[in-house]
Amino acid sequence: MQYETKRRSILKAISWRTWATMTTAVIVFIFTGRFTLAITIGFLEVFAKMGLYFLHERIWHRIRYGKKEIPSFVLWITGLPSSGKKAIADAVYQVLLKEDLKVDRLDSRDVRPFFPETGFTPEEVHRHVKRSGHLAARLEKNGVIVVASFVSPYRESRDFVRRLANNFVEVHLRTTAEACEKRDAKGHYRKARQGEYQYFPGVHVAYEEPPNPEITIDVDTTSVEEATRRIVAYLKQRVMNEKKAKPQPASPRLEQSRPA
Amino acid sequence: MQYETKRRSILKAISWRTWATMTTAVIVFIFTGRFTLAITIGFLEVFAKMGLYFLHERIWHRIRYGKKEIPSFVLWITGLPSSGKKAIADAVYQVLLKEDLKVDRLDSRDVRPFFPETGFTPEEVHRHVKRSGHLAARLEKNGVIVVASFVSPYRESRDFVRRLANNFVEVHLRTTAEACEKRDAKGHYRKARQGEYQYFPGVHVAYEEPPNPEITIDVDTTSVEEATRRIVAYLKQRVMNEKKAKPQPASPRLEQSRPA
Residues of A with CB below 8 A from B259's CB? Predict the structure, then answer.
């Protein structure tokens, strides 16, 4: 929740006054040719108007007109383990941060440690992805842009997030398990093949490709820089550029008999 | 993410100019006694300075100095079923909304419908409360004030939320199961006693009172209005009034071997 301090208004009054009084003095001098008159009027103006300007700022600080929200969205990057989700998500996040946008970064490995009891069976992965997606959508509803990176191998839980979000931008990193295994410096695929992990997408369970993602990136032939550029361009043209943000739907509210 | 439109700056330029030019004209008239000169200088000023003012606004729009954040917090209202959590939380929420604060309202029954598979065993209640608390803390981290109302009968999961939040304000609605049952218009306590519900706090499982809540309200002897007044007073004096917001700690990041 942002507000403007009185100090800011005072500084603005001084900076404006310097600029404006010089203009007045020059105009008076041109018209009257009298240098001292120009200076005297300029001098009086400084005091009279500095106070008025401060007052003017404080009044406008309370007026909401012309204070607009940039539409927020959930950017959801999905793909096999070691497909490069984190690198691309981090790069997009940095670009948005630099543009001074209110943006949060949600990575699967930032959420899981809080819920160590949630494992990797399909049911638990659904729970993990739905929990994170619900969070992402709620942040979006509050004006926060979310850059999320999750393997999220199952269509059902990704679609759950899509339904909850207002502006959902699904980015599919297209590749093969073989290519990912080559990139996999930490040997997760090997461990999965050796049975150390179960339900590993690409090894034990299928990664269900999104049927209609907003953006598809062939990571085996696309650099992180190029992927970032394409995603940011899409966001600027198709999401953030809307003259009016889509109206925020009221949070869906379902009926339930037992008190929650 | 808020920004100021050019339209806002134009309107401010016009409103300021009206005010300021009249001042200049009066000053020039007092000093020279020449009415037409005063009007001419005022007239020229209108054009010269309107443009300058607009420019001045656009420059300041990019300057962050003096734009402050009001500290956000998680207000967590806990108590037995039918202790009056929702009424008090709604009232506090309305007060904060009216003050133009960025605030979100989180009620247990707004979260549960998204996760219908989560029931009411202690384990499932922990999962529900932790999921909601994680969400609340993440909203808080992004500058959103959260007003949450959850039975949250178990200390463990409430403390989980306390650890995640930066400013955690726990409000305990103190009462007895008997008093709640009298207030309970929907007959939930009766259903619980008849075995229709299991693990019902106050009937089958104990409500674990918070040992050190920030605020305790004896709801049997306190009106909703009085409770709201007390909570808002606490928030203003102890949380939102901090001259400087506590530094936001970096999101805790735990290690994990398997990719998330």
Answer: 81-82, 108-109, 151, 186, 188
